[in-house]
Amino acid sequence: MKHESMTKLFICARESVVRKTRGQTMTEYALILAAIAVVVYGTYRVLGNNIGSVASGIDSALTNA
Fold first, then answer.
1. Residue 50: how many CB atoms within 10 A of its CB?
2. What are phi and psi of 23, to 5 degrees?
3. Which helix (H) or strand (E) holds 50?
4. How far apart are CA 6 and CA 54, in angstroms?
5. pTM for the whole thing?
6. In Å, what is the CA distance from 17 to each residue of 5, 14, 39, 53?
């Protein structure tokens, strides 16, 4: 009987840790996604309409390398 209660207590504690870890991981993914979105938006704002010419220049440089 005592062994069963200790086992249940251990399982509850373990499940609690697993739930907290999963939530933390989702938060980290959300922060990474937000950072990538900010970088992409900033790049778009800096390059503006010149994105096509920049991509062509990079393509030419890679082709000629």
1. 10
2. -65, -40
3. none
4. 64
5. 0.46
6. 19, 5, 33, 51
